[in-house]
C-alpha cells in the first residue's frame, strides 16, 4: 500500500495494547508540543489531526490526545478524501507532505498546518514556499522549541513574511490574514453586461467603476477585505464586451481571481472553479405577444359553434310549437315548414312579424317567449360584435412546437446556447427545425437585436434580465413581448461566480455572498437594475412597440365577409325568384302577381349597392 491510514479515537491507556508507539524522541520537546496541541484543542482550533511523515514526535503525541487522527506516513495519498474543515495538519518536517490528489489538496487548502522544522531551514523561505502553493495557515516550530517556546507563524501582506509568536499567545499563531489584505490586488474582469455590471464614474474620485447586482457584490467584498481591484490590461484590450464564457475559462486557467460575472453551472460536475450559487433563475424564451385578430375576421370570431347549436335547437322547438298550436295537431309538420317558418325566422332575427289574429292564450305565450329569445340573442351578438370591433381580441398564443412552426417567428440564439438547445434534456425545444434558428456568432449583436424588441424573433433570456425588459416595455404604448414558461432552455439554472481553483479566500468570499443575500441586498439590486440602466443611459426610452393603426373607422376590407355573404344571399334569392317565375308558362301574369315581391328584391339590391359604395368612399 502506498500509504498507511489509521484512524483511531484515543480512549486512554488501552490504546497501548494495539499500538505500541514508544517515545524515542526528546521528552522535553514532546512535552512542550503536547501542551501546545492541548492549548490549540481547548481553543477549538481543530477536531481532527492529519499527520504526514513518520519519524518525529507527532505520531506518538497523537495517542495522548483524544482526537481522531489520520496517519499518512508515506506523505502522500492518491485518493479523494474528505476531511472536516477543522483539520489540523501536522508535518514531521519541511515537505513531509506530498499530497497528490488535487481535490484532497483543495479541501485541505484552508486547513491549519503545524510544521516541525529540522535542520537549518529558515522560516522565511518556508513561508515563501507555502504561499506559492496557495497555502496560508502555516505555523512552524524548530527543534529547539522546548528552550525558547517560539512559534513561527507565516504572515501575508507584510515585509517580513513571518512572525515569532510567544507560545503563551496562542491566538496569534493562526490568524485570518485575508480579513485585511492591506491593499493587495484581486484580479477580476467584467463582462460589462447590463444590468449585472455597468460601467460608470465614481462621482467623488472620477475613477471608472462598475455597478449592478454582480459588480456591487465584488466591490463590497474588495472594500470589506481592504483589497484593490485589478483588471488585467492584457485581457481587457479586446474592444467591445467580453463574453462571460471566456471569463469563466480565464478563471479556470488561474488568470483571474474572481470573475465579475455569473455563469450557469449546468454542465459542470463540480464547483471547483465556481463559487457558492449566487442566484437561481429560469432561462426561457421571450415571445412576441400575439397579433390582434384582423377586423374582417371578427365576424367569424363571434360565432361559437356550441351557442349556434343551442340557437338552432331553440328555433326548431319554437317553430314546432307554433305549428302545433296553430294547427292543433302534428299533421302539418313537415321539415320545410319547420325550417322555413316565417314567423320564427323573423322573430329570431328580431324583426317584426305578423301576429296571428285569433290567437289563443298559448299562442300568445309562445310569441312572447319568441320575442324574449330574439331580444336576448340579438343583444348578445350585438354586444359581442361592438366590443370586438372596438378592441379586437388577440390570436391564440404559441403553446406547442407545432404552433411555433406554423408561426412567423424565428429563434435568435447565440452559439453557446445552440449546444444546450440540442441536448436531449430540452425535450420540447430540440425539435425546432434548423431553418427556424438564427445563430449569432457575436454575443453583442445578439444583445442588440434583443434590445431592439424585434417582434419577428424569439429570444432566450434569463428571468432576471427579463425583469428589466418588462420594466422597459411598460414605458411603451403597449407591451411587445412576454416571458414564456412553456419554452425553456432551463427552468432552474444556478448562477455562480467563476473563481480561481485555489482561491485562498474562497470561504470568506462565499460567506460574503451569503451575508449580502441574507440581508436582501441582492433583491434590492435586481429591483433597482432598470432604474440604474435608465440613469446610465444604457437603455433608451424609445418606444419599440409598433404603433397600433387607428382602427376606429371601418373600411370595405373589414366588411369583406359580411358584404360577401349578403351578396351571396341576394344571389340565391334572385335565383329562387327566377325559378318561381319560370315554373308557370304565363310569365307576365305571374310577374304582375309578384310585382311587390319584385320591388322588394330590387330595393334590396339597390341598398346593397348603396352601402357598398358608401363604404368604398372611406
Ligand atoms: C513496545 O515495544 C518495545 C520495543 O520497541 C517493547 O520493549 C515494549 O515492551 C512494547 N510495549 C508493549 C506494551 O507492547
Ligand atoms: C469524498 O467526497 C467525494 C464527493 O464529494 C466522493 O466522490 C469521494 O468518494 C469521497 N471520499 C471518500 C473517501 O469517501
Ligand atoms: C513569552 O511570554 C512569557 C510570559 O508572557 C515571558 O515570560 C517569556 O519571556 C516570553 N518569551 C519570549 C521568547 O518572548
Ligand atoms: C488598508 O490597506 C491600506 C494599504 O493599502 C492600509 O494603509 C490601511 O491601514 C488598511 N486599512 C485597515 C483598516 O487596516
Ligand atoms: C472567447 O472565446 C471564443 C472561443 O471560445 C473566441 O472565439 C473569442 O475570440 C473569445 N473572445 C475573447 C474576447 O477573447
TrEMBL record:
<keyword id="KW-1003">Cell membrane</keyword>
<keyword id="KW-0472">Membrane</keyword>
<keyword id="KW-0812">Transmembrane</keyword>
<keyword id="KW-0675">Receptor</keyword>
<dbReference type="InterPro" id="IPR052192">
    <property type="entry name" value="Insect_Ionotropic_Sensory_Rcpt"/>
</dbReference>
<feature type="signal peptide">
    <location>
        <begin position="1"/>
        <end position="16"/>
    </location>
</feature>
<feature type="transmembrane region" description="Helical">
    <location>
        <begin position="594"/>
        <end position="613"/>
    </location>
</feature>
<protein>
    <recommendedName>
        <fullName>Ionotropic receptor</fullName>
    </recommendedName>
</protein>
<keyword id="KW-0325">Glycoprotein</keyword>
<feature type="transmembrane region" description="Helical">
    <location>
        <begin position="559"/>
        <end position="582"/>
    </location>
</feature>
<keyword id="KW-0732">Signal</keyword>
<feature type="transmembrane region" description="Helical">
    <location>
        <begin position="306"/>
        <end position="325"/>
    </location>
</feature>
<keyword id="KW-1133">Transmembrane helix</keyword>
Amino acid at each position: 500500500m502506498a500509504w498507511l491510514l489509521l484512524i483511531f479515537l484515543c480512549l486512554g491507556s488501552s490504546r497501548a495494547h494495539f499500538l505500541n508507539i514508544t517515545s524515542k524522541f526528546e521528552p522535553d520537546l514532546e512535552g512542550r508540543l503536547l501542551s501546545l496541541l492541548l492549548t490549540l484543542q481547548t481553543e477549538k482550533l481543530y477536531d481532527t489531526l492529519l499527520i504526514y511523515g513518520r519519524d518525529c514526535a507527532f505520531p506518538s503525541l497523537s495517542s495522548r490526545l483524544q482526537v481522531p487522527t489520520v496517519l499518512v506516513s508515506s506523505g502522500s495519498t492518491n485518493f479523494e478524501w474528505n476531511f472536516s474543515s477543522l483539520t489540523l495538519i501536522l508535518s514531521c518536517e519541511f515537505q513531509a507532505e506530498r499530497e497528490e490528489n488535487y481535490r484532497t489538496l483543495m479541501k485541505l487548502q484552508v486547513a491549519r498546518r503545524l510544521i516541525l522544522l529540522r535542520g537549518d531551514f529558515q522560516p522565511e523561505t518556508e513561508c515563501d514556499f507555502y504561499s506559492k502553493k496557495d497555502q496560508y495557515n502555516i505555523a512552524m516550530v524548530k527543534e529547539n522549541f522546548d528552550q525558547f517556546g517560539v512559534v513561527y507563524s507565516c504572515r501575508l501582506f507584510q515585509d517580513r513574511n513571518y512572525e515569532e509568536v510567544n507560545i503563551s499567545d496562542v491566538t496569534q499563531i493562526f490568524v485570518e490574514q485575508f480579513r485585511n489584505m492591506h491593499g493587495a490586488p484581486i484580479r477580476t474582469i467584467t463582462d460589462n453586461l447590463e444590468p449585472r455590471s455597468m460601467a460608470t464614474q465614481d462621482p467623488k474620485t472620477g475613477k471608472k467603476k462598475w455597478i449592478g447586482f454582480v459588480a456591487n457584490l465584488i466591490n463590497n467584498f474588495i472594500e470589506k477585505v481592504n483589497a484593490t481591484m485589478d483588471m488585467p490590461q492584457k485581457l481587457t484590450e479586446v474592444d467591445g464586451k467580453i463574453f462571460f464564457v471566456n471569463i469563466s475559462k480565464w478563471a479556470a486557467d488561474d488568470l483571474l481571481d474572481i470573475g465579475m460575472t455569473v455563469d450557469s453551472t449546468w454542465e459542470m460536475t463540480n464547483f471547483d472553479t465556481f463559487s457558492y450559487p449566487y442566484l437561481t433563475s429560469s432561462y426561457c424564451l421571450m415571445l412576441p405577444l400575439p397579433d390582434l385578430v384582423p377586423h374582417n375576421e371578427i365576424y367569424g370570431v363571434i360565432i361559437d359553434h356550441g351557442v349556434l347549436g343551442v340557437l338552432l335547437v331553440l328555433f326548431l322547438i319554437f317553430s314546432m310549437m307554433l305549428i302545433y298550436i296553430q294547427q292543433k295537431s302534428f299533421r302539418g309538420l313537415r321539415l320545410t315548414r319547420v325550417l322555413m317558418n316565417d314567423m320564427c325566422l323573423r322573430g329570431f332575427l328580431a324583426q317584426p312579424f305578423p301576429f296571428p289574429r285569433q290567437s289563443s292564450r298559448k299562442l300568445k305565450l309562445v310569441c312572447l317567449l319568441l320575442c324574449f329569445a330574439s331580444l336576448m340573442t340579438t343583444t348578445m351578438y350585438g354586444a359581442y360584435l361592438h366590443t370586438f370591433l372596438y378592441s379586437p381580441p388577440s390570436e391564440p398564443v404559441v403553446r406547442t412546437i407545432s404552433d411555433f412552426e406554423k408561426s412567423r417567428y424565428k429563434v435568435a440564439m447565440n452559439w453557446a446556447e445552440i449546444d444546450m438547445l440540442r441536448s436531449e434534456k430540452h425535450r420540447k425545444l430540440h425539435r425546432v427545425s434548423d431553418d427556424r434558428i438564427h445563430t449569432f456568432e457575436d454575443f453583442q449583436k445578439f444583445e442588440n437585436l434583443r434590445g431592439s424588441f424585434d417582434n419577428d424573433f424569439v429570444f432566450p433570456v434569463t428571468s432576471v434580465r427579463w425583469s428589466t425588459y418588462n420594466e422597459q416595455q411598460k414605458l411603451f404604448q403597449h407591451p411587445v413581448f412576454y416571458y414564456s414558461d412553456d419554452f425553456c432552455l432551463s427552468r432552474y439554472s444556478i448562477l455562480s461566480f467563476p473563481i480561481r481553483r485555489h482561491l485562498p479566500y474562497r470561504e470568506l468570499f462565499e460567506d460574503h455572498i451569503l451575508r449580502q443575500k441574507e440581508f436582501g441586498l441582492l433583491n434590492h439590486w435586481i429591483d433597482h437594475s432598470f432604474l440604474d440602466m435608465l440613469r446610465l443611459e444604457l437603455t433608451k426610452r424609445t418606444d419599440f412597440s409598433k404603433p397600433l393603426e387607428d382602427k376606429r373607422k371601418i373600411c370595405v376590407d373589414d366588411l369583406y365577409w359580411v358584404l360577401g355573404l349578403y351578396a351571396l344571399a341576394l344571389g340565391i334569392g334572385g335565383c329562387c325568384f327566377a325559378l318561381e317565375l319560370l315554373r308557370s308558362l304565363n310569365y307576365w301574369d305571374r310577374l304582375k302577381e309578384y310585382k311587390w315581391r319584385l320591388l322588394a328584391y330590387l330595393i334590396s339590391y339597390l341598398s346593397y349597392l348603396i352601402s357598398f359604395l358608401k363604404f368604398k368612399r372611406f
